[in-house]
Specification:
- The structure holds two protein chains of two kinds.
- Chain A is mainly α.
- Chain A folds into two domains: 56 residues, no CATH class; 206 residues, MetI-like (MetI-like fold, Orthogonal Bundle).
- Chain A is built from 13 helices and no strands.
- The longest helix of chain A is centred in the first third of the chain and has 33 residues.
- In chain A, 48% of the residues are buried.
- Chain B is mainly alpha-helical.
- Chain B contains 14 helices and two strands; from the N terminus they run H-E-E-H-H-H-H-H-H-H-H-H-H-H-H-H.
- Chain B has one domain: MetI-like (MetI-like fold, Orthogonal Bundle).
- In chain B, 73% of the residues lie in helices and 1% in strands.
- The chains are: A mainly alpha, B mainly alpha.
- At the A-B interface, helix 1, helix 4, helix 5, helix 6 and helix 7 of A face helix 1, helix 4, helix 5, helix 8 and helix 11 of B.
């Protein structure tokens, strides 16, 4: 073919773009299929060949609510993820602040140690946590989940906040100190406004992680404090072979977090990589 | 700020994390050397290392250990390679790139339990699943994925969820790469492979390290995907250490043996962590 360089470039851009679209559709297909199935009847859901055109129904969504009390589980998810995030921020903001602004020789070691606690596999401490929850009457209780979620996310939150606080110019604070402002005033009028974005995205990341947490939710909760992850897990039993209803429950459970994830990709990258990738 | 206030502000997080680490760890260590089964109540007796002996000589231990390593290793390779390929694919602008990017990263935000059930029911089901429909359309014999290749099925599910994670981090890093250097190299007649090898790959060194570290933490104890799909079976074909300990603990109520298993899992994680933190943790610290 006799194409000029710019023509050839155009063709390659087009073909790469087309390829990207195809790959994206393949990757996204399971999610799309789940959403489509949630609008089918049970018979349509298992029809072979699969239906791509049908009359959508909303029945599944109301049945899911009736049969498994969907809103109770959704509320538990909201309470645990927001509660744990709030608690973790409450503990981590002052700590990360002081580490960033008056670091000692041991600050780096402390931060690395915090990161290393994430290396303790959850299953290694399953028995003690289970028995502690049982003996304090906190088994199947949202309170114990809040505490656990707080603790498992605390290291990540500390790191994220630390990197955000690190970026605040020190000169402003020094000027502020010269004028005799107290630590509290510093925090309230300088640091908080400047790092509001960082704190917010830290909180959002923490909410995502709590919302999707599965190990502790499945093992420590049942009917009372069950979160959405635990509810969906209960559909794995044979009685849960209702694909349309499973899809409806799953769509509802995932939609908020997926949409939310689309909007804060950048902050999530920073958070998940402890600020190492921007 | 004087150092006393600094200590005061840091104390809660350090003390809480320390307690969170040391109390359960101490209890696990203690339980692992006593005879303790919830089904046969009685005073806890010191039992030496027989829990460990029981756990290690259990016929499920070796398969579980191997499965754990296969899971971590293969998922790491798949996600890093695929994530890299996808990131390079969508690195240059084209029509609708924003939407493509959103579609590609979406699986990462799906709950693990939902992920597993979508794949188990709607894709991998031997009768109604999309895969078997496609197989039949091409005249092939449909595969019962979860019972014929349980471990591979789990690997596919987890990779589907985590490739977007690698992609998300790689593409963010690629977008911050200096394009002038690349253009200069191109003008000098460097091949695309040379540009990738000498410019792009070194630029991605840190993101790749980070992706490997974080994924290792998560994949050493894959649980939900196994719990809702194969239940560790058939046999022990898809049992990893995390699931084996879970079944000792909450299915057979043997606290002692489960705790011994927990200690072994912790040791394994720390062996891996030792190398990772040395390699990657320092890399992270340079920046901050």
């Amino acid at each position: 073919m006799n194409l000029t360089l710019s023509q050839r470039k155009k063709v390659s851009t087009w073909s790469l773009g087309l390829l990207s679209w195809i790959v994206a559709l393949v990757i996204f297909f399971p999610i799309l299929w789940m959403v489509m199935t949630s609008f089918k009847t049970e018979l349509q859901a298992i029809s072979t060949p699969p239906l791509f055109m049908w009359e959508p129904t909303l029945e599944n969504f109301s049945v899911v609510q009736e049969r498994s009390d969907y809103f109770k589980y959704a509320m538990n998810s909201v309470i645990t993820s927001f509660g744990a995030t709030f608690l973790a921020l409450l503990i981590a903001v002052p700590a990360a602040y002081s580490m960033a602004f008056s670091p000692s020789k041991r600050t780096k070691d402390i931060l690395l140690w915090m990161l290393s606690t994430k290396m303790l596999p959850a299953v290694g401490v399953l028995m003690p946590i289970y028995l502690l929850a049982q003996s304090t009457g906190l088994l199947d209780n949202v309170f114990s989940l809040i505490i656990i979620f707080t603790m498992i996310n605390l290291p990540i939150i500390m790191w994220m906040l630390f990197t955000y606080f690190k970026e605040i110019p020190k000169d402003i604070l020094e000027a502020c100190r010269m004028d005799g402002a107290s630590t509290f005033a510093e925090l309230r009028y300088i640091v908080m406004p400047l790092s509001w974005g960082g704190i917010a995205s830290t909180g959002l990341l923490s909410i995502v992680l709590c919302w999707n947490e599965a190990f502790w939710s499945i093992n420590l909760t049942a009917a009372d404090a069950g979160t959405l992850t635990a509810l969906i897990a209960s559909y794995s039993s044979p009685e849960g072979l209702f694909w349309a209803k499973l899809s409806a429950a799953s769509t509802l459970a995932c939609a908020p977090i997926v949409v939310f994830g689309w909007f804060c990709q950048k902050q999530l990258v920073q958070g998940l990589t402890f600020g190492a990738v921007k | 700020m004087n150092s006393r206030i600094a200590k005061l502000l840091q104390a809660p997080s350090i003390i809480l994390l320390f307690l969170w680490m040391i109390v359960p760890l101490g209890m696990t260590l203690y339980f692992s050397v006593v005879r303790y089964n919830l089904l046969s109540p009685g005073p806890l007796e010191f039992d030496g290392f027989s829990n460990y002996a029981f756990f290690i000589t259990d016929s499920a231990f070796l398969p579980a250990l191997i499965n754990t390593l296969i899971l971590v290793g293969s998922i790491l390779i798949i996600t890093v390679v695929m994530g890299l390929a996808l990131a390079l694919l969508i690195n240059r602008p084209f029509f609708g790139r924003g939407i493509v990017r959103v579609m590609m990263i979406s699986p990462f935000f799906i709950m693990p339990t939902v992920n597993a059930l979508i794949w188990k029911n709607m894709l991998m089901n031997p009768v109604y699943g999309i895969f078997s429909v496609i197989a039949i359309a091409f005249g092939a014999e449909p595969i019962d994925w979860l019972s014929e290749m349980p471990l591979l099925s789990i690997i596919i599910m987890v990779s589907w969820q985590w490739t977007p994670f690698a992609l998300l981090i790689f593409i963010t890093s690629l977008q911050s790469q200096d394009t002038e250097q690349q253009e200069a190299a191109q003008l000098d007649g460097a091949s695309s492979w040379a540009i990738f090898k000498y410019l792009t790959l070194p630029h991605l060194a840190r993101p790749i390290a980070v992706v490997i570290m974080i994924q290792t933490i998560f994949h050493l104890s894959i649980f939900a995907e196994i719990f809702v799909t194969t239940g560790g079976g058939p046999g022990y074909d898809s049992t990893n250490l995390a699931f084996l300990i879970f079944s000792q603990a909450l299915l057979q109520f043997d606290v002692g043996v489960a705790s011994a298993g927990g200690v072994i899992a912790i040791i394994l994680a720390n062996i891996v962590a030792f190398f990772l933190i040395r390699a990657v943790g320092k890399n992270l610290m340079v920046q901050s």
